[in-house]
TrEMBL record:
Residues annotated as domain Glucose-methanol-choline oxidoreductase C-terminal: 425-544
SUPFAM superfamilies assigned: FAD-linked reductases, C-terminal domain, FAD/NAD(P)-binding domain
Name assigned to this protein: GMC family oxidoreductase
Domain Glucose-methanol-choline oxidoreductase N-terminal: 8-335
Residues annotated as signal peptide: none
Length: 561
């Protein structure tokens, strides 16, 4: 570092991918500036509600009418409530626009740690079923990597993160470096037997989750409280705060600046390199420039794409590194809110210990071995079985000691399976800058134009029916199905808009997450994705980030950047 504003590397964003970039860059000896647009959230100290009992909340944890006004998008997320509100962006303060008939849910957390504090922690490897999908279907562009390119990096990040799970030996859902699995409860075991008995190729397994089932890398095992979305005082689930940022800080090479909104990347046409970033102080509005030899964009899918779009120059009039014209296009997500549930009898004398912060997973089975006539790609299910609690008494007619006595006893068993399905990379699903709608810093906001299309609609119907069929086959009673409308984005797995590819004419990033056009800029969050798979994506972002840093530092040492 030569002066206060010059570093070896700059990382934009401190969420799941920014934390990883910071850890890897600093551990390789680079003086690294981490710029985060939101406030500081200190591990443990700032988890202000982490152990508050429900009765200490004004609304007993519910979403208030006022919150529905200020957080019209965020408050629809299952994890948003009175206990977690402080982690979500105020939608009114951070606007974006969409076509009237195409709502998009942009779910965000602007603070140190990003959504690593509020994520659901489900971690599944991709396989070549995913990496080869575009090429086989003749859709969009081919991935420039295959499973063997990323497999060692999955292992690398999993060993650090700590993921509990059960090895299953499935080629299309590869096993990882697992800590001991959590247990299936009695009804989940019954449903597993029912499904696997009738369809030997299908599987039900315990969720693969970044919650520790034993002490790991100095972090404490999970206490099964199921309060993770408030932040964990034990550091028992993976977040930037509990894992990557402390590792980066321990090197002495990290400078973390919260409240620093990266407005654009500075580009020098002569050297054809980025030279740094321009930052607006979120509190004072003051502008500062920081310089570095390499820049990692980890500001989340739409955050990073916004920065690139907002970094236009004579050389790149449509956004930095956008000679392909693909920047902002091919936005994807996963559909969900579709599935079935059923009651299970015969287990009234059984219960479970604690509140397991995890469910079950049924890996994809469509278009794996046979071709489905109605759609391409597939879906997996997340779900679980539990007993009804006292809340089943709400809305029921009843009073007196007998009624109270009845609702304090465990209720009937119910098991649900909810589908998460792949969205195709449609060029038309896109984002662009909207100069007519500025944010509080006077910066253009995003116009997001995207929707699910025919393939997703057909897959949803199949996911609903297949869930019901499996629960019925397992002995479920009162099977009910649902297929609820939810805007694209609501799956919180937004991906694409700066895709990887082999050809600079049709993709923004190469196989190392490096901009084809500007070699010292790397983009390693979900914007890099070329297709969406149907599994939760964050472990793949982590593996790609660690892999990209390894490459970038080697390139720096070879004087190639
Ligand atoms: C309720 C919920 C459940 C989820 N469950 C799962 C799950 O089970 N499994 C899974 O794989 N994924 C899950 N996800 C998604 C997961 O959280 C994201 O995929 C992941 O956090 C993406 O990492 P990221 O680093 O790209 O973005 P983030 O973690 O969102 O971090 C981006 C950071 O960049 C900062 N930033 C943005 N713009 C700028 C700027 N201009 N300047 C400076 N800083 C900026 C933001 O403030 C933020 O801190 C879930 C998300 C939520 C909300
Ligand atoms: S359930 Fe486990 S990981 Fe989640 S907050 Fe509680 S102890 Fe932490």
């Amino acid at each position: 570092m030569q002066d206060n504003n010059t570093f070896d590397a700059i990382v934009v964003g401190s969420g799941i991918t920014g934390g990883w970039a910071a850890k890897e860059l600093t551990e390789k000896g680079l003086k690294t500036l981490v710029l985060e647009r939101g406030r500081q959230v200190e591990h443990v100290k700032d988890y202000t509600t982490t152990s508050m009992p429900t009765w200490d909340f004004r609304l007993r944890g519910r979403v208030s009418a006022e919150d529905e006004v200020n957080y019209p998008v965020q408050s629809k997320v299952y994890a948003f409530n009175e206990a977690t509100r402080h982690y979500w962006v105020n939608d009114l303060e951070h606007p974006y626009t969409t076509p009237e008939d195409q709502p998009f849910s942009w779910i965000r957390g602007y603070h140190v740690g990003g959504r690593s504090i509020m994520w659901g922690r489900q971690c599944y490897r991709w396989s070549d079923l995913d990496f080869e999908a575009n090429a086989k279907d003749g859709i969009a562009v081919d991935w420039p990597i295959r499973y063997q390119d990323i497999a060692p990096w999955y292992s690398y990040v999993e060993k650090f993160v700590g993921i509990s799970g059960q090895s299953e030996g499935l080629a299309h859902l590869p096993d990882g470096e697992f800590l001991p699995p959590m247990e299936l409860n009695c009804v989940e075991q019954k449903v597993k037997s029912g499904i696997e008995g009738k369809w030997p190729q299908r599987r039900l397994t315990i969720g693969r989750v970044a919650n520790l089932t034993r002490a790991h890398n100095g972090r404490t095992p999970c206490q099964h409280r199921d309060l993770c979305f408030r932040g964990c005082p034990y550091g028992a689930y993976f977040s930037s705060q509990s894992a990557t940022l402390p590792a980066a800080a321990a090197t002495g090479n990290m400078t973390l600046r919260p409240d620093s909104v990266v407005e654009s990347i500075l580009y020098d046409e002569q050297s054809d390199r980025a030279t740094g970033v321009r930052v607006i102080d979120a509190n004072t509005g003051e502008t500062t420039e920081y310089k570095a030899r390499v820049i990692f964009l980890c500001a989340s899918t739409l955050g990073s794409t916004w920065i690139l779009l907002n970094s236009a120059s004579d050389r790149f009039p449509n956004g930095l590194a956008n000679s392909s014209g693909e920047l902002g296009h091919n936005l994807m997500d996963h559909f969900y809110r579709v599935g079935a549930s059923a009651d299970f009898e015969g287990f009234d004398n059984k219960y479970y210990d604690g509140q397991r912060p995890n469910g079950v997973y049924v890996p994809r089975f469509r278009n794996v071995w046979d071709k489905h006539p109605d759609f391409i790609r597939g879906y997996g299910y997340q779900g679980g079985a539990s007993r009804g609690n006292w809340k089943r008494g709400v809305g029921e007619n009843g009073m007196g000691a007998d009624f109270k006595d009845a609702i304090t006893k465990p209720g009937p068993w119910n098991m649900g399976l909810q589908g998460f399905g792949e969205t195709l990379p449609y060029h038309e699903n896109s984002v662009r800058l909207n100069p007519d709608k500025l944010d509080k810093h006077g910066l253009p906001t995003l116009f997001i134009s995207a929707k699910f299309r025919e393939n997703e609609a057909k897959m949803k119907v199949d996911a609903m029916n297949a869930a019901a069929e499996m629960l019925e086959a397992a002995g479920g009673k009162n099977v009910s199905t649902y297929n609820r409308e939810a805007p694209i984005g609501h799956g919180i797995h937004e991906m694409g808009t700066a895709r990887m590819g082999k050809d600079p004419k049709t993709s923004v990033l190469n196989k190392w997450n490096q901009c084809h056009d500007v070699p010292n800029v790397f983009v390693t969050d979900g914007s890099c994705m070329t297709s969406a798979s149907c599994v939760n994506p964050s472990i793949t972002y982590m593996a790609l980030t660690a892999r990209a840093v390894d490459y970038a530092v080697k390139e720096l040492n070879r004087q190639n950047l």
